[in-house]
């Protein structure tokens, strides 16, 4: 049977996702775009879990409604004392988004790439994710190297 893709607006899609999460179910979604490179690529999958009972801290990858960009899947860069949360996509170098705990829709509990999967909360992955956060001012240079290597490999 041939599979077809259907595209819907984020707000419509995530209304359905939120309902499934409210029922206590996990939801696996297809990632679109490159804002989470190098950890998640376009067409990778992410497993989402309800945020209730999950540890929300610096470095956690979440789906959240933001002030600036609507609904995004990004990493928590900072949590201020007043509860304001700053998000930054791993592949972004300048675009910060802001939210708060009440607007976190889901926590990403697993990444899938082909037949491989891994947890962003695995101690090694968490360390690398936090290190990547700290490299913010310099990571655009690393991303340029990654893009150039990717072009060489696929050429």
UniProtKB/TrEMBL annotation:
InterPro entries: LexA/Signal_pep-like_sf, Peptidase_S24_S26A/B/C
Pfam families cross-referenced by the UniProt entry: Peptidase_S24
Domain of life assignment: Bacteria
Domain Peptidase S24/S26A/S26B/S26C, residue spans: 24-90
UniProt-recorded name of the protein: S24/S26 family peptidase
Organism the protein comes from: Phocaeicola coprocola
Lineage of source species: Bacteria, Pseudomonadati, Bacteroidota, Bacteroidia, Bacteroidales
């Amino acid at each position: 049977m041939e599979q077809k893709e259907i595209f819907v607006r984020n707000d419509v899609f995530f209304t359905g996702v939120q309902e499934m999460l409210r029922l206590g179910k996990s939801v696996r979604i297809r990632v679109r775009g490159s804002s989470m490179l190098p950890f998640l690529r376009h067409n990778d999958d992410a497993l989402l879990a309800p945020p209730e009972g999950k540890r929300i801290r610096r470095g956690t990858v979440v789906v959240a409604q933001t002030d600036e960009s609507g609904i995004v899947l990004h990493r928590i860069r900072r949590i201020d004392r007043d509860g304001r949360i700053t998000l930054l996509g791993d592949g972004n170098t300048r675009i910060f988004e802001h939210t708060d705990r009440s607007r976190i829709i889901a926590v990403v509990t697993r990444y899938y790439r082909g037949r491989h999967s891994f947890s962003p909360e695995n101690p090694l992955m968490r360390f690398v994710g936090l290190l990547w956060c700290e490299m913010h001012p310099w990571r655009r240079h690393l991303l340029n190297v990654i893009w150039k290597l990717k072009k060489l490999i696929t050429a």
